[in-house]
Amino acid sequence: MAVCIAVIAKENYPLYIRSVPTQNKLKFHYTVHTSLDVVEEKVSTVGKSLGDQRELYLGLLYPTEDYKVYGYVTNSKVKFVIVVDSSNTSLRDNEIRSMFRKLHNSFTDVMCNPFHNPGDPIQSKAFDGIVSGMMVQTG
Amino acid sequence: MSVPDYMQSAEDHQTVLVVVQPVGIVPEDQFFKIYKRIATVSQVSIRDSQRLLYIRYRHHYLPENNEWGDFQTHRKVVGLIAITTCGSAKEWSQTAERFHGQKEVYSSTLYDSRLLVFGLQGEIAEQQRTDVAFYPSFEDCSDVEKRVEDFVESIFIVLESKRLDRATDKSGDKIPLLCVPFEKKDFVGLDTDSRHYKKRCQGRMRKHVGDLCLQAGMLQDALVHYHMSVELLRGVNDFLWLGAALEGLCSASVIFHYPGGTAGKAPGRKLSMSQAADAGKRHRPGAQEVLIDPGALTANGISADTSTEIGRAKNCLSPEDIIEKYKEAISYYGKYKNAGVIELEACVKAVRVLAIQKRAREASDFLQNAVYINLGQLSEEEKIQRYSILSELYELIGFHRKSAFFKRVAAMQCVAPTIPEPGWRACYKLLLETLPGYSLSLDPKDFSKGTHRGWAAVQMRLLHELVYASRRMGNPGLSVRHLSFLLQTMLDFLSDQEKKEVTQSLENYTSKCPGGMEVITLPDGLKLPPVPFTKLPIVRSVKLLNLPVSLRPHKVKELLGHNMSTASPFIYSPIIMHNRGEERCKKIDFQWVQGDVCEVQLMVYNPMPYELRVENMGLLTSGVEFESLPAALSLPAESGLYPVTLVGAPRTAGNITVNGYHTSVFGVTSDCLLEGLPAVKTTGCLVEVIPSLPRLQLSTSLPRSVHPPQPMSKEELSSTVSVQLFNGETQQLTITLENIGSEDIETLELTSKIVTSKQSVSLLLHKVQNFYVRLKKEFASIYSFIQFLPNGISVTGLPISSPLRQVLKPRPENKPVSSEPGKAEYSHIKTLEAVLNFKYSGGAGKVEGYYRELSLGVHVDVEPSVFFTRVSTLPATSTRQCYLLLDIFNPTEHELTVCAKNNQDLVLHASECQRMAIQVDKFDFESLPQPDQETARFTNPKQLQEERQHAQGCQINSKLGICWSIISFQRLQRKASVEGVLNQLVLEHLQLAPLQWDVMVNEKPCDCDVIADCKVGEAVTLEVKLTNLSKNSVGPLALTVVPYQDYQNGVQNYDLEDAVTFIGSNTFYINTVKPKDSAVCVGALLFLYTGDFYLNIKFQDDSAGRELPLAWFTLPSVHIKALDVPLQAGA
């Protein structure tokens, strides 16, 4: 279902980015990179109004001609971005949410690995597996 | 209308559009000079009404756009200022014609026009015309601004009249239908009398009046008109104009809310609140039926009339509503394909408002919408403009990444393949502007902190594009710089294939334009710092190396102490200077020498998947003049740590700091400073360079051993000579010293040291000392020789002997001499090691108190040759002699011959033991030189004793002259030593007694085998002489002479009373003999028969000699042959 899944560090550099192999990788890099503007904007406005408790799921960041970009920010300001095909109209918001939740759980597992250095690119196979699962399912 | 004005903002709705154009031939620069002056008159305060009129100037405006003037009056060209040059009166008519022609273009909308004529003087210029102003030249036109103001005022009058004219139109009158160009054909044949149509006309007219009010500075009136228009148009579903009315409402509200403007461009828009309020108050008399007082905010902030508050709140949109209405308006515009430009411009305006409101997300929605507005076929230039403006707007709302994205798209558009002349320069410029958006700086220093974190894929793409653009721009230097940067900073992200490609293209570029370390400054002032290749190769550690052992300078001790005292007055201080992190500045505790080649070892690593050629790699230093000798190296692919030694020679003395290194890789020279490389390990980079010293080169006649078999001592040796010898063998070693330095040697000192087995030391040492003496003697002559020839050679010989000593203790007597187990014991190899030290100094270094030391290690492996397993003595016939019995063992595998002085050779087979008897004279050890008082006092007695024993041993050795030779080796004769096996007892036997006994028979000395002849019947004199050579006096002594006959069958006959008679007593008496004195006693014998007689001289009373060794009292036995007297003699 997803065509690109990215994990972005607090400092806004990619920790993990994976896209469907059939399409230009660089394009997704650009898409995810520019989506950070919206993420930052959303986070900064939300942070002001709600203080501590806030929704991690940011919803649709922006639609492009071909894709829809969804965002999710953890409390430690790590961002998840999922890009889905615009043509995929069957996808509900709840499904996107559950994808993010799954991603977040898996990411937490990666962080729990004592040998993982936070801030380093994610190379966990388990995480990779989860991501592949999300990308393949209906795609 | 196809060309959008992206610069538009909401407040442009209140401006009147004036076109300023050149007519005829006007120099461009002059035109723009005048244009700028005109443009400064952007707001004019109208004298009577105190209202402000805002003017927008354009030097280029499409008449096509002008046609939309009814739709939004700020699009209408109401004024024209033509600028022309006119040299003479003759040209005037032509110029005037042209001006009229120009006017024709905008004739439908123009309120007024002006012509500024430059260069015309004379009659025509004299005439007063309102629409023409004459100036003699472009410089001499001080009242241009004034003229423009007048012109604006005249426009205002027209505007105001139009406004009043339209505003007072009663609904009963026939109101014309205002149309946009594309609508015109739609309304053909429409029922003009229908209520619907009338409403439409009314609504549109209201909107138009609103526009005019807004332009005329009557904001509140404008709001009212817009509101009414919205109501009217909503009713008739006239969406395009409804949109326009809504937009007008928004614009008016924006102008009200944000008097500072939304475009952020106009510094001239300095409208303060009070001014605006004033303006509002003043125009109250002219206000319309639904009168709303806009002067709610007065200068002091107090408003008495509450109704105005309500009115204002009702008419003016709140900031949130503005956006809502904009959205609505845009959605209406969106219904019309031909209103794309209007829609786009509305989006841009809304975005500007949202940017002021800091509602970036909603602004991005507007922009997102703007991206999709299709304006039909756009020219490439328009596309670029559109993307640039999108980028700017994204920047405005803080979406830097989006902004960068669109800027990059714009850049790519500049060089789209469809463009016949690609604008590489523009492309490059735009690409540079995208850098911050991708958080990429072109300073490699920003990337030196740890691993790179960023959007590598995107950044790499951008850098590639920069490289390509700069190359196409025809600036290879720039592309080299960008490519170097790409290689240096993105190395970790490049695939092997990419690495190859990047380096190949880099090499291509550098072949035309080598990369250097200079800062490249771009025309727009951007500085591109140099990119040193600190990763090609990666340097892991930098280590300054000490000079080789033989060249290390040493400080003379006294001077060292002096030096330390100057360094700090404290021997110890608990206060440690804060020099943590200053590790690099730490001084290294060795010195380099001026003029001598120094080495720095770098551990380098090639991260490339192929061989890396590094050329011209050298050191960067500061402090002293340093001659770097660059090296070229080739590192294999993905090499591990690879040591590289960089060399150079300091040319002056002082402190030198190694700051870094320089390389040339792929044609790019880089200076890599260590301070920028935190990953590099170093033990310090500051080292002292001392003044130059001479250099001695040492060569030896014997081959040098590369590796000493074992560390000889703690100190390192410059070279080692290794020799293998048999015990007793002699080897000549010639040491050649050559001064290969540039300085004269002024002093040379030689010392030696024995490292192993103290026992075997002394001889070698002794020899070396001899050598030293000899060298010293020679040195004077060498010295003068060196004076003239710095490379003089001194040659000296040094005989090295393995000790002539038997190192093994004598074997116990009772052991079988040739027993097999003994063999192993003898066959082990003994190792001797010695070190010769040459200290030398000269030149400037000597003045500073430095010297150099050259040390030669001598390693001798001694193989056993002959062993004396047992030694004993047998008395010889003479008291002055004795037999030395040596059990000689041959531990070698060769056949040996052993010979002693005047003895025949003894052949020994391998592992054979034989006894050899040598007759030797006894030794007079007293005659050996005694150690002088001075040395005797300071050396311990034991050592003294050893010394003496050694001297004795030497004497015995030289007397014996025992030599051996291995027959199969054809070697010369070797000496063997018995010294070690001589025990005290044997020594005593060998020693010549200090009491010397001489026996004379018939005044002939009689000893041993000498047979004294005498005649029967004749008296034989017997004289015994005692010489005392000992230190004590001896005696008194009594001697008894006992004659006997030896039958040679073991029977000795002492009963000779009738055969021998003594004349006088047979007992001699010797009185006390003082040292160095002698005593003689004389007696006589008479032999009565012929025969062989022996005389045994015995001590009668040995009480006196008891304290002296018995050996001292051995007297020779006397053999006398008594012969018959011839008859005639007897007769």
TrEMBL record, chain A:
GO terms for biological process: endoplasmic reticulum to Golgi vesicle-mediated transport. Its main location: cytoplasm. SUPFAM superfamilies: SNARE-like (SSF64356). GO terms for cellular component: perinuclear region of cytoplasm. It is found in: Cytoplasm, Perinuclear region. It holds the Pfam family Sedlin_N. Belongs to the TRAPP small subunits family. Sedlin subfamily. This is Trafficking protein particle complex subunit 2-like protein. The gene is trappc2l.
From TrEMBL, chain B:
InterPro entries: Ig_TRAPPC9_Trs120_1st, Ig_TRAPPC9_Trs120_4th, TPR_TRAPPC9_Trs120, Trs120_TRAPPC9, Trs120_TRAPPC9_N. The keyword Acetylation does not apply. Signal peptide: none annotated. It is found in: Golgi apparatus. Residues 539-667 form the Trs120/TRAPPC9 first Ig-like domain. It comes from the Eukaryota. The keyword NADP does not apply. Residues 365-508 form the Trs120/TRAPPC9 TPR region domain. Residues 1013-1121 form the Trs120/TRAPPC9 fourth Ig-like domain. Residues 186-260 form the Trs120/TRAPPC9 N-terminal domain. Keywords: Golgi apparatus. One of its GO terms (cellular component) is trans-Golgi network. Belongs to the NIBP family. This is Trafficking protein particle complex 9. It comes from Echeneis naucrates (Live sharksucker).
